[in-house]
Design brief:
The structure holds two protein chains of two kinds. By secondary structure, chain A is of the alpha/beta class. Chain A has helices spanning 9-21, 32-37, 58-65, 82-90, 103-136, 139-149, 154-161, 165-178, 184-194; strands spanning 2-5, 26-29, 46-50, 72-77, 95-98. Chain A is built from nine helices and five strands; from the N terminus they run βαβαβαβαβααααα. In chain B, helix 10 runs antiparallel to helix 11 (339-368) and helix 13 packs antiparallel against helix 14. Chain B starts with 5 loop residues before the first helix and ends with a strand.
């Protein structure tokens, strides 16, 4: 899904036509406000944004969108204004294209934007899944998890918690099951993503 | 109330009458005894009633005898006063009197002095005192005859006058201007201290001072002629010129003079001020050059803005053409080309290409604009002509026109075609702005008038008004569906090229008034 924001109706119409001819689905907007009012579908998307908009500038909109989950941004502009393009790229834009827009560059940028959006969405989804699994763990299991991924042997971890090694092993298999981890290495990676650290581990 | 102390005076009676005899001897009068006694009583009464002090003194100045006024005033008896004059004279004035006595004794001339005498309540008041001596054949003083009268009020008035004069003088010397007074013939009579200081003239040489010698050579001729003309015509004088200061530096001054006349209208003297305006002059000069620079910068900025706007406008069209071209190629190269869609896109390409070309064409027209050919022009005539030309449009849009054109409007110097363009543009805008007005008449009002220096034309519509009355003059700003946004920008540049101004005032209820001015041909 492509969102296109440009205040010039001719450009809006033509670019929309071009993207459609490339087999993409396009929704167009004449201003930033119109875009912000629109409730987007959950599909992977990309936002093509004119630098000069009648209400707020494209750069300001980019800044405003940075605080919320939003499609990747491709800027288009009438003139290659270097300071603006630097600012846009630093703020995470995929590409900065000048009008008239080169077809190759446009396709590449849109593909890159959609790919990055998809990847980000996937990783967001994975993390959400992990967080859900983690929420199933009991407080004791969370303690055990943090100790073992921190590199302690079962014996040591049991000693830290003042429980029998057998009990610890039992917790550990519960954790593996709840987190759906294929291996201990997998569990360590999950803990990493969840930001879990051994409390006593030295940095 | 004759309370003169006769007993005390008794011993002196013979002297007293002798004194009178002496003083009257010159006129050759003789007194009989009877007459004398009558005279004595009369004299006593006269002396007591005399509105002042009358008294006699010994050669050393001590009081011998006085009239009642002295005793009433001092609140002392004659006995208390005798050998005691110093007690009633202000200590600061004792020496004055001593010196006077000494001087008179030696010179023989009557002497007058002013000194302060103590009243019964301790207050000192000023008295004027006049003394004369009776002398023996060797010229030795035998007795002093004196009168004194109260001059306190006079003294105070004098003091107040002196104070006020001093204050006035201070004011005149302090005010930050050169103040001068000239005689009816134009020669300098008086100046304040600042004049002397600025020109470095000692006060004693003021009579020889010729101010025109201290005027900048370039200004001197005009300055002198202006002054002489004013003096001859007895009319106010005003001039601006440079004066050389004592240290040789020239500064700009503004000079103003007014004649003071007597009741018959004759000039008694000239009063004038000469104010240093050098700082102001220099500031004006700086302002003028800043303004010139600014106006140049504004022109450059406008050209830069204009070219950016033009580039943007054309580029947008080209961007659309290119994107549509890409799309067209895609559609045509697909397995089953959508020809209907391809035709639509091709039409858009033509449309957008033409609109870009249109921008170029209009801009070329704008920049090809030749320098205006200015001829004497009757603006009313141009308005009438435009209305004739626009009649069709007015009828078509079912609006009507109201004119209020000032008769005998003076001519302006302007390019006829260009002014026509401006008026056509404004009239058409006004008509178009009322297209969607349905609840009131679509009235277009055109008014012409003049002020002191300009012809003013107001073109008013009763449409919905504008959001921003200044932005509409920016190139490519338009409120119209198919507008280019160049009309008003061009109108303004035309009017400004004629040294006029074009502005708009607007309100939602009252519509919009465009007003432009053109200078009256001088």
């Amino acid at each position: 899904m492509i969102y296109l924001v440009d205040d010039d109706s001719r450009v809006r119409e033509a670019l929309s036509e071009h993207l459609t001819s490339l087999g993409m689905e396009v929704v167009t907007f004449g201003s930033a406000a119109e875009y912000l009012d629109y409730s987007r579908s959950d599909a992977a998307a990309c936002l093509i944004l004119d630098l000069q908009l009648p209400d707020i500038s494209g750069l300001d909109l980019q800044q405003q969108l940075a605080t919320e989950p939003s499609p990747q941004i491709i800027f288009i502009s009438g003139h290659g204004d270097i300071p603006s393009s630097v600012r846009a790229m630093k703020a995470g834009a995929i590409e900065f294209l000048t009008k008239p827009v080169d077809e190759e560059a446009l396709i590449a940028a849109v593909q890159a934007a959609v790919a990055r959006d998809r990847k980000l969405r996937q990783s967001h989804a994975e993390l959400a899944e992990l967080q859900e699994s983690f929420s199933l763990l009991t407080p004791r299991e969370r303690q055990v998890l943090s100790l073992v991924v921190g590199g302690l042997l079962n014996k040591q971890a049991a000693a830290v918690l003042g429980i029998a090694e057998v009990t610890l092993q039992l917790h550990r298999s519960q954790i593996m099951q709840k987190m759906e981890a294929d291996s201990f290495a997998d569990l360590v990676r999950m803990a990493e993503r969840l930001g879990i650290r051994h409390p006593g581990k030295k940095a | 109330m004759s309370t003169m102390e006769m007993e005390k005076l008794g011993a002196m009676n013979s002297d007293h009458s002798a004194a009178i005899k002496v003083t009257r001897n010159g006129s050759g009068e003789k007194y009989s005894n009877d007459a004398l006694s009558t005279n004595e009583q009369d004299m006593t009464r006269i002396l007591d009633m005399f509105p002042g002090f009358v008294w006699t003194a010994r050669p050393d100045g001590e009081i011998e005898c006085s009239n009642q006024s002295v005793l009433d005033y001092t609140g002392m008896t004659l006995a208390e006063l005798k050998n005691n004059w110093r007690s009633v004279v202000n200590p600061d004035d004792i020496a004055v009197r001593e010196r006077a006595l000494d001087l008179m004794a030696r010179s023989g001339e009557p002497v007058e002095r002013e000194l302060r005498v103590r009243r019964f309540d301790g207050v000192y008041r000023w008295f004027h005192s006049r003394m004369r001596a009776l002398r023996d054949e060797h010229g030795q003083v035998l007795r002093w005859y004196c009168i004194s009268w109260d001059i306190e009020e006079h003294k105070r008035a004098e003091e107040a006058l002196r104070e006020s004069e001093h204050r006035l003088r201070l004011i005149i010397d302090t005010i930050p201007a050169l103040v001068w007074v000239a005689k009816p013939d134009g020669s300098v009579e008086y100046t304040n201290q600042r004049v002397l200081d600025y020109f470095g003239v000692p006060e004693k040489d003021l009579a020889q001072f010729r101010w025109v010698h201290a005027v900048h050579p370039d200004d001197a001729d005009a300055a002198l002629r202006g002054w002489l003309r004013a003096v001859a015509a007895e009319a106010s004088y005003e001039a601006t010129h440079r004066h050389r200061s004592a240290d040789g530096e020239y500064r700009w001054f503004q000079v103003r003079g007014e004649p003071l006349r007597d009741r018959d209208g004759r000039v008694l003297s000239w009063y004038g001020v000469t104010v240093d305006i050098d700082d102001r002059k220099q500031m004006e000069e700086a302002l003028r050059s800043t303004r010139a620079r600014l106006s140049r910068a504004t022109r450059i900025a406008t050209v830069a803005e204009l070219s950016a706007a033009i580039a943007h406008e054309i580029n947008q069209g080209l961007a659309a053409v290119v994107a549509n071209g890409h799309a067209l190629r895609r559609w045509l190269s697909s397995v089953s080309p959508n020809l209907e869609r391809a035709r639509l896109i091709a039409e858009r390409i033509i449309r957008d290409g033409n609109s870009a070309a249109d921008v170029v064409r209009r801009i070329r027209a704008l920049f090809k604009q030749e320098a205006p050919t200015k001829v004497p022009l009757d603006v009313n005539e141009v308005i009438a002509e435009v209305l004739r030309l626009s009649g069709d449009k007015v009828r078509r849009k079912s609006s009507y026109v109201e004119t209020d054109l000032e008769e005998n409007l003076p001519m302006t110097l302007a390019d006829r075609i260009q002014i026509q363009q401006v008026i056509i543009n404004l009239v058409h805008n006004a008509i178009e702005s009322m297209e969607d007005v349905t609840n009131r008449p679509r009235l277009l009002s055109i008014r012409s008038r003049r002020d002191a220096t300009n012809i003013i034309v107001e073109i008013r519509d009763y449409g919905r008004g504008l959001e921003n009355a200044e932005k509409i003059f920016e190139p490519f700003f338009t409120t119209k569906e198919n507008g280019m946004g160049m009309g008003l920008a061009i109108c303004r540049s035309i009017v400004e090229a004629h040294d006029g101004r074009l502005s708009a005032t607007t309100s939602e209820k009252q519509g919009t008034t465009f007003c432009f001015t053109l200078p009256i041909r001088s």
